[in-house]
Amino acid sequence: MFAIAPALGKANLSASQLKLLAGKARWIFRVCEAGFPTIPTIAITRAAWDELQAERGRRDIRLRTHWVACLFKLVDKDGKPPMLVVRTSAASHNGGLMPARIGIPAPAAPEDAVDPGRPLARAIKQAFESYGFSGRTWTGGRQEDDRARQIVLVQAVAEGAVEQFLTRNAATGALGPAPLNGGPLPRLPEGVNALIALLDAKAGRHMSCLVAVKDGQVQFMSARSVQASAGAELEAAVDRVERRIWTPHSAVSRVDANRLALMLHPRLKSSEGVSPIAMGLGVSPGAASGIIVFNAEDAARLRARGKHCILVVNETGPADIEGMKAATGILTARGGMSSHAGVIARITGKPCVAGVRNLSVDAAEMVCHIGDREFRAGDRLTIDGTDGAVYLGTLPLAQPQIGGAIGKLLGWSDASRDIAVRTNAETMESVQTALSFGAEGVGLARSEHMFFSPERMVALRRMILSEDEDARSRAIAGLVDYQTGDYSALFASMKGLPVNVRLFDPPLHEFLPRTDEEIEEAAASLGVAVRALRMRLERIAEINPMLGHRGVRLAITYPEILQMQMQAVLAGARAASEKQSEPVAVEVMVPFVSTASEVSWVRERAMAILDNSGLTRSERVRFSFGTMLELPRACLRAGDIAAMVDFISFGTNDLTQTTFGISRDDAPTFLAAYQRKGVYERDPFVTIDEKGVGEMIEIAIARGRAANPRLKIGICGEHAGDPASLKFFAGLGIDYVSCSPYRVPIARLTLAQASA
Amino acid sequence: MFAIAPALGKANLSASQLKLLAGKARWIFRVCEAGFPTIPTIAITRAAWDELQAERGRRDIRLRTHWVACLFKLVDKDGKPPMLVVRTSAASHNGGLMPARIGIPAPAAPEDAVDPGRPLARAIKQAFESYGFSGRTWTGGRQEDDRARQIVLVQAVAEGAVEQFLTRNAATGALGPAPLNGGPLPRLPEGVNALIALLDAKAGRHMSCLVAVKDGQVQFMSARSVQASAGAELEAAVDRVERRIWTPHSAVSRVDANRLALMLHPRLKSSEGVSPIAMGLGVSPGAASGIIVFNAEDAARLRARGKHCILVVNETGPADIEGMKAATGILTARGGMSSHAGVIARITGKPCVAGVRNLSVDAAEMVCHIGDREFRAGDRLTIDGTDGAVYLGTLPLAQPQIGGAIGKLLGWSDASRDIAVRTNAETMESVQTALSFGAEGVGLARSEHMFFSPERMVALRRMILSEDEDARSRAIAGLVDYQTGDYSALFASMKGLPVNVRLFDPPLHEFLPRTDEEIEEAAASLGVAVRALRMRLERIAEINPMLGHRGVRLAITYPEILQMQMQAVLAGARAASEKQSEPVAVEVMVPFVSTASEVSWVRERAMAILDNSGLTRSERVRFSFGTMLELPRACLRAGDIAAMVDFISFGTNDLTQTTFGISRDDAPTFLAAYQRKGVYERDPFVTIDEKGVGEMIEIAIARGRAANPRLKIGICGEHAGDPASLKFFAGLGIDYVSCSPYRVPIARLTLAQASA
User: Fold this and answer.
1) Which Pfam families does the record cross-reference, listed alphabetically (chains A, B) (predicted)?
2) Alpha carbons A67 and A61: distance in angstroms, whole number
3) Given a cut of 80, is residue B582 above it in pLDDT?
4) What number of other Cβ atoms are within 10 A of residue B415's Cβ?
């Protein structure tokens, strides 16, 4: 028990007392210490209170005497004991805490100061009791320890009007008194600004502030921090740097990257007071509101009229791509993170909720059900692809603000970052977004994604469905031109920044027709009989396509695909290099290898094609060759592999799937139960599993660097956009990460924080 | 150049000369050395020959003088130079070698002995040239080295009749002169038996022997080893032990386990002169001949009449199980090693060739095509499930001979083996086979395989298809009785040997109806509407079932299944323990874990069920709990896991799939190309990949033992039946391996060889 704001003079706290100052107590002491008029306040810890009570049983009064002396510190120079207020002072605000108990008479006798039957001691006892054990998961010894340090404040009752306000605007972050919870701003004297500046500098957060105003004079009563919007916090952080309260470095380290993420997609203004009608998997972030449609034509029609729509389907396939592009958001009954819907939605930047178990769609009848509710075309829904929630009707959305403050903060962050941030992108649109967000290269251009348009799909399907090498070579010939143009545009737009092209790695089933109607259409466009197409489809169907004929396995079994891709990449690089002053930096990456022999097989052929291209003799194109490590065996054999490549890049999505033996698409059936039952703490597809997948990566890096000290190392799985994972990656000694365009700012910020 | 059998006296070779004795030279020297009359023979190495020729260029005669002196060693005491024979003496026989050149006159002058224009030197030159570089893949320095050591023999021409015979019968292994290649046995004097005994003891192999017989006297000319049948080699080995030529230990170490494997299934007597009409994947070993059938009824009908049949289908499903049981062999157009056909075939011990790409079956029309050929029910085929070959018509088969010799050899092998051999089995039939082959326990009883009969399948499907816990619990109730009886019989048959029961790990898709007809049938038997069943099937369909909702994930999401299984296992153990004197040794194993938290979750519940059973207080049942390590993450976290279990068992099939990222079912599309192009040396699903999967296992063993020194460690993947893999496993310090029943003898032999 001690005074943190004595009525006379200043508090002079010991180091151990200073350590006890949690919550409001901290700010009352700081403001008083800085010389701002402050309502007299004393603090008592639970440990002290318990000891005071124990002393009563022993009929001792040593501690009570000290306590009464403390209470006298609330007495002003007029010598009259004031009426008292009892407040909690929790480290974090909590609904169950006792509200301030106001107007308690000062104890008439020393015994009254500790007798729980008397008003003051009763209020203190109740305040401590209101702390309970809630609010945090205390563990082990700390629980008792923290409990002993809980504080209750006893203040003199203030004279004059009590006013409450925020130190900064909750929406804009602007400094100065701001209204609380949308209420009116109280009239406050000029003097309050000094208090605000003081508190903002000391706390570095939005504060809710309580003052007493009398005769134009302000007396500080108490303050606690409040959570402002991500945007307001960011603006405030930048403002503090500009006011020289913070260094740029402190601003960078104090902004929460997870909250920054919320600003980079359209989002729900607030979901308070509305409950989702269903939950699925948030597979592509951002929120979208719109009219329900069940097919591409309706989506296109609405889009043409400038209306937002949500495409609602059981699952998506190649036939739905146009509909997905036209829709504002996508909602599916089946599928997960790497379902067709998820992949396309993330590429196109559309919010998507997938795998809503109680959704069933009858597209033919243009009706869907979510649980018992029936929805028809024209009804409205809002989806939140960040958390997977589905809401009834149209909820208000906030658009992403990539304004001045975020730019400044990220600019500062770049100064203290030594790991490059690239992006996973292949379309011009996504590359431009990523560049505007500060991407320093393309870390993963998924070459097969360049075929996501109806006319190209025909050529691609023709190739996939080829029965023999001749047919495949003919199909391939039709693909080179598209690709050359795409690569040329991609390289040109990156103006000399490195572009990593991953060789063809199609999850075949995503490119193939599925429904009877699609098969008939595909047969017509391919010029084959429906029956023949069906037989071929059946023949190439895979039981576990994730572990099937893909990645480097395609390049080795069908070397003509490798040949075509290398030629297109090199022709694109040549074309781009002729139009710009910077040399084109091309990286070709072989996916899904499990042995060094696969790497050497592809390398030998790729290098022969490069040598024949004549580009090796040019200074205009810088070519490097590498591989993607996304299988446990590749990690173990990284030493052999590293000796043959310029770079390796970890594909953490597939590495997580194979290390855990979990298909991400099929995981929703048990992952929810796992988290509910506490078997997994975190979804390993969201935050990297440090103890398993992380160790695989560490083994690979150690062996790779030992074999090839000049090896460049990157991470290109989706974990590269997750702050917790990025912190882990930052400690691995890697050269770059590559994430989706909207995640580039998060990676820039988190890596700066981690390297600080 | 030196005499290995001089006409007078004995050869007295230096150590370096002894080292040069390869092929026939070795046997000629040994026989002569042992005092058996031998045709005079001298040997010249290529190095010596080359030097002789080089000397001619230098007009030197030092070496030539030595050579001529050597040639004089062929001269008998009559002093007359004999006519000569020039032979090669390759370490391994090879079709391209020069046949013996007979009747060459002895050189008339010293110069003639080295002049390639003269008959002797010409024959020697041609003999060296015929070695070429063929026959082996020589690598690096050894190539030149081995070449320099090639030998050519110069012999005196024998007088009398030249006769050829084998030292042991090629089919039975019986000692004594035996005919070669099915020809008649020449008349041989009694004296030949001493030579045969001598050679058999020296070579320890079947030898093809050349002698000259004159006046009832035998002179040894030359011999080379020949490959006899696996059975004959085995009989010979045992015979040598019984004749005290070999120790049991030498017999064990000299029998080739791979060849032993050929004896344990029906096999083709010979495939010489017949070409397969198609090749598929040999997924269940052994050969089978029979009449083609397309459905279970026809198979059953033929079986009832005692006829063999081959079930030919596109792929098998639950509806085909009865047909598979009735058929002698199974041939499918689709699927691989772990396809339904492969799994069931191996369990039931039926030869099976799967994934024959150019086979198409029209079951309704009762016709199939292999390439251009058409086959109808009643036509005959022979399949070889060991190598995947399909032959026209009925080829003669040899039945497995588990006779006295194999029993003796394996008995000896057990003495020098310290790793136990268990079996993967759950049916009474396979357990009995395994016991008769010497299995020392069950290392993997796949509990879900106990449902492979039509009436049980209904109950199992009802459980899999349950919509909620209530429905599932009802379905489960119907399963307990079956299981209790099965476990009781299983434990009883093992008479106290350990039985490892793996908790339910169904690859769901194998148990579910697929075709329209099967779905209709299943709906009827389950009492649900076809449409509802279809919707449910669609909902639980998985994209990558291998990485889906299986193993421990089922136990955690549906704890009622765990409860049912534990109760059935414990009830079965109690029942068995009441009928026998030995305590029942039960091991319960949790499959497909990737985290220690999964193990602890299941362990806690399993132990609670055990405690409630009262069996812990009984001495009649010994219970242990463990887990299967078959995912890379589980291997990395083996330390955490080992602390909670009594044993771990490596599931090398799934561990290979996940470490490589290869679905074994889908691998055939690229694995053949990989082997053809030299990317993989060996199929990692046949022989353990030591550098990748092997390291995972080593990491896990090191971490597991460190955390729990009393940890019991086993291997239960199919690699545990492969000799090359077993040699690797033997070095890991494991306690047991568990393989399919027919592989038990191979494991016993290989592990004995490895620990010697």
Assistant:
1) PEP-utilizers, PEP-utilizers_C
2) 10
3) yes
4) 10
| pTM for the predicted model, two decimal places | 0.83
SS3 B195: helix
d(CA B234, CA B626): 39
Residues of A annotated as part of the active site: 340, 716
Residue A154's nearest CA partner among A277, A54, A4 is A4
**How far out from the chain centre does Cα A556 lie?**
38
Residue A138: what pLDDT?
35
Residue from B535, B537, B553 whose CB has the most chain A CBs within 10 Å, to mutate: B553
**Is B362 within any annotated ligand binding site?**
no
DSSP 3-state assignment of A207? strand
Q: Residue B138 pLDDT more than 60?
A: no
Q: Amino acid identity of B375?
A: F
Contact A661 B696 (CB under 8 A): no
Q: Name which of B223-227, B302-306, B354-358, B565-569 the model is least confident about.
A: B302-306
- Provide DSSP, B579-610: T-SSPEEEEEEE-S--SHHHHHHHHHHHHHHH
User: In what order do the strands lie in the sheet containing B217-225?
Assistant: B175-178, B161-168, B207-214, B217-225
Q: Following CA atoms A723, A726, A728, A731 in sequence, which dihedral angle do they give, to the nearest 10 degrees?
A: -140
Rounded to whole angstroms, how far apart are CA atoms B701 and B731?
Answer: 12
| Distance (Å) of CA B301 to CA B277, B298, B326 | 27, 5, 9
Radius of gyration of chain A (CA): 32
- Residue A728 · residue A715 · CB < 8 Å: no
Residue B290 pairs in a beta bridge with B381
Q: Test B695 with A663 for CB contact under 8 angstroms.
A: no
Dihedral in degrees, nearest 10, Cα atoms B379, B385, B389, B393: -20
- Does the ipTM surpass 0.90? no
Asked if residue A587 belongs to a known ligand binding site, the reply is: no
Q: What is the DSSP letter of A38?
A: B
Domains in chain B: ranges and CATH: 1-134+142-157 (3.30.1490.20), 267-398 (3.50.30.10), 417-507+542-755 (3.20.20.60)
d(CA A331, CA A392): 13
Residue range B163-222, pLDDT digits in tens: 999 999 987 899 999 988 767 888 999 999 999 999 999 999 999 999 999 999 999 999
- Please name the residues in contact with B306: beta carbons below 8 A apart, sequence gap of 6 or more: none
CB atoms within 10 A of CB B493: 16
- Residue of B314, B337, B658 best to disrupt the A interface, most CBs of A under 10 A: B658
- Residue B640, annotated as binding a ligand: no
d(CA B84, CA B158): 9
**A670 in contact with chain B, both atoms CB, cutoff 8 A:** yes
- Of B431, B415, B565, B572, residue with least CA distance to B493: B431
Report the distance separating Cα A424 and Cα B214, nearest Å.
87
Question: Is residue B644 less than 8 Å (CB to CB) from chain A?
Answer: no
Of B657, B673, B691, nearest to A556 by CB-CB distance is B673
What rounded mean pLDDT belongs to chain B? 89
A182 assigned binding-site residue: no
**Residue from B70, B352, B716, B739 carrying the catalytic annotation:** B716
On whether the CB atoms of residues B196 and B164 are closer than 8 A, the answer is: no
Burial class (CB in 10 A: 0-12, 13-18, 19+), B444: buried
Q: Which of B76, B126, B131, B61 is nearest to B106 (CA)?
A: B76
pLDDT lower than 50: segments of chain A: 134-141
CA distance A316 to A513: 11
Give the pLDDT confidence score for residue A134 in this predicted structure. 42
